[in-house]
Amino acid sequence: MREMSWLPNHLPASCRLIVSCPEGSAVHEALAQRLDTLVITSPPLRRDYIKADMVKQHLATHHKSLTERQLEMIIGARLSHLPLYLTTVVNELRVFGGFEQLNGYIMKYSDVESLHELWTTIVTRWMKEYGHDGDGVDG
Prior knowledge:
It contains 6 helices and no strands. By secondary structure, the protein is an all-alpha fold. It folds into 2 domains: about 1-40, no CATH class; about 50-130, no CATH class. The radius of gyration is 17 Å and the shape is globular. It starts with about 25 loop residues before the first helix and ends in a 10-residue tail after the last helix.
């Protein structure tokens, strides 16, 4: 499958690669067919207190925290049942130094309807923050 054509057929014995993808996606199917792949399925996160604890613990390791309202916005997001969504959003939010912008980005990340849209939003922020004008980038 072309989704994983970049991955060599044989990896060195000392090489480990961790890939996160939705179950049933083309990437998941391609990886599941490989003999050298161990597929581990992470169940959806259904309980808000588990999601909140995951967010709090991750941020605490970086000496960061959120207000209760900010935490509610994140765990109430449409995609918050996906561990990859929560991990990505929390990693993105932990780099913010300015509290003023934080609520705006939490709202943007909470409104996305897919992981693809989340990553598009994040990469767009990176391009603005790091001065990339977008030339040569497919949208």
